[in-house]
Amino acid sequence: MRRYSKKFLINLCLSVGITSLTIGLPIAITANADKIKDMIHPVDNTTYLKYEDDFLKSDRGDILRLPIDKNPIPVVLGEMDEQTKEYIVDGINALDDISENINYTIYDYNDFDKPSDLKYISFNMIDEIYSENSDPAGRTYIRWNENTAEIQYPIRIELENYYADGYWDKEYTQSVLTTIVKHELMHTLGFRDLYKDEDISRSIMFYQIGPLTQRTFTEEDIEKIQYCYDGKEIAVSEHPNTLEVLNYTNLLDKNKKTTPKHDDEYSL
User: Fold this and answer.
1) Is residue 2 domain-resident?
2) Which of 3, 89, 141, 188 has the fewest CB atoms below 10 angstroms from its CB?
3) How far apart are CA 150 and CA 188, in angstroms?
4) Which helix (H) or strand (E) is 43 found in, with range?
5) Per-residue tens of pLDDT for the chain, all 268 residues
């Protein structure tokens, strides 16, 4: 059985639209409620209320959350090249390192018996998301039990091959893909996309990726994850702005290969 070691290498899900010097990558989450028509019981949201505005919610307004136990969550990597697997593993490990209670075990799709264990998260690379109309570069598909507001397994994450097809040099491709993975895994924990201008500096859950977007978990992200899933009260009064201001035109020129595959799609 092949497993990928913890701390192997790297994070969200995106789509491309070009505005001025910014490549904005809208992120999407597709969710379908598993409607329960039996008696609806009250759901205890108290553990999550401090950050309820940052959570997805059920049809009746309960905070969606991922049920976890002492067993690691299996993550199944679909058919993709080894380099892409390493980038995805790095993003998974980054979240694994933040939380004491959230743990992952990573499998190749050929080594995981899905029918015998439906509790898993899958990552797959596809060629159907990208378009010039700003469709997302990745999607997280979740469903939940309306009676308990618990997110249900299996969870499927799809990432657009466009961001792993060799258009960018290695270092930049890795940065984009790992950011995508981290963002999408936050969706599996019930966190929603953030849309306000100030959110770009405070969370990896900002709905676009561009020159000023966070590429890793911020102090606020870490606080929310540990508070909600580890029961830690973390006193962080300020969340410093750690943005790295980039000349994006130079960044594109620096990382673009000599013969770009999608040259006509990036006219800055």
Assistant:
1) no
2) 3
3) 11
4) none
5) 334 443 332 233 343 322 223 334 455 666 665 554 445 678 888 899 999 999 999 999 999 999 999 999 999 999 998 988 998 999 999 999 999 999 999 999 888 887 666 899 999 998 875 555 556 778 999 999 999 999 999 999 999 887 766 555 556 666 788 888 999 999 999 999 999 988 888 899 998 866 677 788 999 999 999 999 999 886 554 444 443 333 334 444 454 444 333 333 322 2
Please report, for the domain that includes residue 30, its CATH number.
Answer: 3.40.390.10
Provide the token pair at 242: 């750690």
Q: Specify whether the CB–CB gap between 105 and 73 falls below 8 A.
A: yes
Specify if 66 maps to a domain: yes
**Amino acid, single-letter form, for residue 90:** D
Count of domains for the chain: 1
Q: Helix, strand, or coil here: 9?
A: coil
Domain of residue 240: give its range: 17-265
- CA 215-26-206 angle, to 5 degrees, is 45
Q: Is residue 64 part of a domain?
A: yes
Terminal alpha carbon distance of the chain: 46
DSSP state of 194: B
Structure tokens at 135: 């469709």
In this structure, is residue 82 part of a structural domain?
A: yes
